[in-house]
Amino acid sequence: MLNGDGYGCFDNSGPLLAINANSPNRRLAGEFIASLLTEELQSSPELIAMPVHYKAGDENARLSYENFLDAGFEPTEGFGLEANIAMFEEMAAKLNSVGCGDRIIQNFLRDELASYFDGGQTAWQCAENLQARLTMYLNE
After folding, report:
1. What is the pLDDT of residues 113-137, one digit of tens each?
2. Residue 10's pLDDT is what?
3. 23 near 29, Cβ under 8 Å?
4. What's the pLDDT at 28?
5. Are the C-beta atoms of 134 and 108 separated by less than 8 Å?
6. Which of 5, 22, 49, 119 could potentially form a cystine with 13 if both were Cys, beta carbons 3.0 to 4.6 Å apart?
7. d(CA 12, CA 46)
């Protein structure tokens, strides 16, 4: 995605969490998502993706840099810890699009598109089938 100056940044770093508008437990779901965004949980070493909490992101960058040094790598000029943190902060400031990779939706697409490209259905049938499957899945 491009921002006003012709540049942009795209992130597809992990699962996207959302609350279905029809959920009977929207408040609890919101509290759960909020708890996942705390500095404590975002700083967990078990977190696979880059944290979205700024302080946790700095800590993650520091730990990654220490692991880099512990592994015997030598930092090059201009690529130390502070430069690494600054680079991620700059990228985060430009972030204007987030990708969502839902495995179930990807499977729907794969199945329907395979049938379309094999000649088993028309583009219109493919679109109708996808719409029906996605509507049912997203309303569950």
Report:
1. 888 888 898 989 999 999 999 999 8
2. 43
3. yes
4. 92
5. yes
6. 49
7. 19
3-state secondary structure of 98: strand
Phi, psi torsion values for 113, nearest 5 degrees: -70, -35
- For the stretch 82-90, contacts whose Cβ atoms lie closer than 8 Å and that sit 24 or more positions apart, written own/partner, are 85/57, 85/58, 85/61, 88/50, 88/57, 88/61, 89/54, 89/57
List, as one string, the DSSP characters of 19-43: --TT-TTHHHHHHHHHHHTSHHHHT
User: In a 3-state reduction of DSSP, which class is residue 49?
Assistant: coil
State which H helix or E strand residue 9 sits in: strand 9-11
Q: Is the pLDDT of residue 99 over 70?
A: no
CA distance 53 to 76: 27
Quickly tell me which residue has 């719409």 as its tokens. 131
Task: Say how far apart CA 100 and CA 106 lie, in whole Å.
Answer: 10
Q: Please choose, from the candidates 87, 34, 37, the residue with its C-alpha nearest in 3D space to the C-alpha of residue 58.
A: 87
Helix/strand/coil for 120: coil
